[in-house]
Amino acid sequence: MSHPSQNAEREPLIHLSKRSGIHPAKAWGIRLAALALGLITCGLIAFLLSEKLRSDPKLIEKFYTAFYRASFGRGKIASDPYRKTWDFLQYSALLLCIALALTPAFRMRFWNIGAEGQTLIGMLGASAVNFYLGGKIPEWLLLILMLFAAVLAGAVWGVIPALFKARWGTNETLFTLMMNYVAMFLTAYLIKKWQPMGSGTLAFANGKLPALINNYLLIILVSVALAAAMFVYLRYSKHGYEINVVGESERTAQYVGISVKKVIIRTMLLSGMLCGLTGFLFAGLNQNITRDSIGGRGFTAIIVAWLAKFNPLVMILMAALVLLLQKGAGQISQDLNVQKTAMPDVIVGVILFFIIGCEFFINYQVHFRGRGQKREEAVK
Amino acid sequence: MAGLPFPSERQSGPFFNESGGRPVEKQLALEMRGITKRFGSVIANYHVDLDVYRGEILAVLGENGCGKTTLMNMIAGIYFPDDGKIYMDGQEVVIRSPKDAFAHGIGMIHQHFKLVDLFTAGENIVLGVKENGRYRIKDVNERVAAIAARYGFHIDPSKKIYDMSVSEKQTVEIIKVLYRGADILILDEPTAVLTPQEITRLFQVLRRMKEDGKSIIIITHKLHEVLEVSDRVTILRKGEHIATVNTRDTDENRLTEMMVGKKIDLNIDRPAPKNAQPRLEVRHLDLHNAEGIHVLRDVSFTANGGEILGVAGIAGSGQRELLEAITGLQPRVQGEIIFHNPKKDRPVTFFHKSMRRVRELCAQNAFHDGKGRDVSFDGMKTAAIRKWVESGDVLFREDEVMSLRDKTPLEIRQLGVHLSFVPEDRLGMGLVGSMGITDNMMLRSYRKGRAGFLDRKKPRALADEIIKELEVATPGVSTPVRKLSGGNVQKVLVGREIAFMPKVFMAAYPVRGLDINSSYTIYRLLNKQKENGVAVIYVGEDLDVLLALCDRILVINSGAVTGILDARTATKEEIGLLMTKTQAAGKEETK
């Protein structure tokens, strides 16, 4: 004889079901809750890791204000109190540019993780022009030539893996990844060649980006314009339509007569060109080049593009969010005296984990054991 | 006994005999009471009751999406019910996993086989079984042979799966379940992949298992099979239990009515072909696929305008490759694919022809001026020729004949040849699942219009029209088509292909997975194309439908045509024989 009451306990503890749809407000509620949980978790982790925080729990307030202070805090220099904000916006813009460059490729499900190298090679192209022609021709002409060289170099770097993929079906992820290292060491080699006695940093007197009201605005405007253009390109152009079809199903593309190879090559050409353009912006902003000039932004941009689900307009927000987290984490490690540990990376990682992980709860509903039993009793 | 739940009381003899008149020896094997299962807000099953007796074949009948498979998956331990109880031999049981199901003697044979290709039948059968003692494949094979002999299966336990036909693989799946000692077997649409002869053999086996006291649940939506093999039928509609009836007390019309909820005319129209003329000629078509396998062998046939040509064959006999070869999706095709463009006595246009091409054709004396006289452009300036042609007074003498071989889909279209193709894989090939109906309409036409940018106005209008005309149930034109039900997805696809104004309309399994109403809508649409003079090629699996709808039926087997029959006089058995005729010979050839 069986006892029905026991059976309820033998029911699976948790079972999941896919949601058929979710109200946008609820979805955003889940995302905000995830962000909050992520921040709390970070606080706990910091508490465990930092002796300074444990000895002075009041510091926790500083911990949470760090995100704001790092990006928007007033500087001590009276002449330029908004420097941190402008700086934040400018670097968000650069991050955004790379993420936008990746977007058409990602939409096509071409996993280009070579933005780091494509951007660096663009910067190298611009720097080469600057090295050989800087000071010898008018500044405006120099900038134009730098731009051309950067876009061309980026395009070449982007299209090589695409050609191999289209022709021999090579794996684009490995290929673009390895091209990063080729770009990096090519840069190191050329810097050494151009400046044999140098420290590995090649600086220029010329080729500075023109100021638009201030030194930051030009890059910011370029990135926002690029986001808008990319949005229009993907949504309203025939190319964008083809990219979406190829990304969704190559067989559908063939079925309607879209040449998949052509689309892959064309799109990677565009992706590489935009990376090259960003490389030009870096060159004109820094007026120097090292092999680490891009500083991992080519990889961070992948996260930005994914977080925005490849929507160029949402990407503006996501680039800012990711940079906000990075800068905040850096500030925290400074405040807590833990610069040389992995703490900043842990903080960024944990928060991103929560943000990305919460998508699961947007797509699925979780049921716990006993719910069915209760309903049954209610019926009785 | 007082504490026992209600169902086991029903099991007791006298009570039972009075109510149902069922023989006393019939014992309840499994009961489901008030089973409910939801997926999000979708209710797949709502308070379903089901009884299965020992030694009977129970058919579970219902349209696609009515919750048949979901219900069975709950017995097999794949899903867990939100509500309701399952009893076996009067005891409540909880089935949390397929392992639990096996422990209770329940085995399910899924529609898609789950076998390791490189293993033999015996190895597949014993895979995952925990037995005491040493593993000896010889013993396993002996046991398998014993089971096979008992129920009349034909199987070689040491044959590799990759050497097996679909029906042999199915046999392995069934024995796999029996080997684990299952007393209740659930078969999910087992006949969908079989020829008529194989179906007959399967049914014989099922009857023997029934005589042996096994309970068999067979899921299907083919009415005549239900009537042929089952003892009782349980009908589900929209997730709810509608009725359970004795098979001998019912008929096709009554079953349909219960299944659909209203009376349906089960006859398919077949208007007589008018003015049938060769439209597409296929000559000695031969094809090796990318893996080097010989998929089409010397295929020749002619499809006429104003006629439906059916293609019958076991799944995977080359039907897909044949249609893809015609539409230009298969490279490396040998043979001829010739299209007859019905242009006789119709005006020449520049839509798909350059001035150069028009001059060339004129030099070949391909045109006349409407009164039968020759047309000559000698000494004329380009502008004058253009004017003359555009006036519509230059007509073709004969139908245009063009070769479609070695042309990409785009090149075929640029020739002005409209081939519509409804592929088997609707969301993986015919449509883009993540896009809305409007954007899917654009697949065929997006190249038109403003340079560089898309024009969504016309596709939007077409989307609205198709939604209205074909009664597509969708929240809106921008809802991703992936979220629509199978029937609605197919309506969108067929609608778009018809809007393309085809000369040849090819459809691969267009009613697979569709409910009766949607299926009949598709048949009507195909007939309408036929009446408009389109050459329709229909690849189907249901021979009854092929025989009722088509004018001629081409039978394909291992990539070769084994016969082209007049559908008005052919029989199912005839087609079935042709579907398997040279299979043995073909196998030997490849070895």
Core attributes:
heterodimer; A: about 375 residues; mainly alpha; ABC transporter involved in vitamin B12 uptake, BtuC; two-stranded antiparallel sheet; two-stranded antiparallel ribbon; 16 helices; disordered N terminus; disordered C terminus; B: about 600 residues; alpha/beta; Rossmann fold; six-stranded mixed β-sheet; 22 helices; 22 strands
Structural write-up:
The complex is a heterodimer of chains A (380) and B (591). In chain A, the strands form 2 sheets. Chain A has a two-stranded antiparallel sheet. In chain A, strands 2-3 form a two-stranded antiparallel ribbon. In chain A, α5 packs across α10. Chain A is built from 16 helices and 4 strands. Chain A is globular. Chain A is mainly alpha-helical and 380 residues long. Chain A has a domain of 255 residues: ABC transporter involved in vitamin B12 uptake, BtuC. Chain A starts with a helix and ends with a helix. The N terminus and C terminus of chain A are likely disordered. The relative contact order of chain A is 0.18. By secondary structure, chain B is an alpha/beta fold. Chain B has 4 domains: 235 residues, P-loop containing nucleotide triphosphate hydrolases (Rossmann fold, 3-Layer(aba) Sandwich); 159 residues, 3-Layer(aba) Sandwich (Rossmann fold); 55 residues, no CATH class; 72 residues, no CATH class. Chain B is 35% helix and 24% strand. Chain B is built from 22 helices and 22 strands. In chain B, the strands form 5 sheets. Chain B has a 6-stranded mixed sheet, with helices on both faces. Chain B has a 6-stranded mixed sheet with strand order 18-19-20-13-21-22, with helices on both faces. In chain B, α18 packs parallel to α19. The N terminus and C terminus of chain B are likely disordered. Chains A and B meet through α1, β1, α10, α11 and α16 of A and α14, α15 and α16 of B.
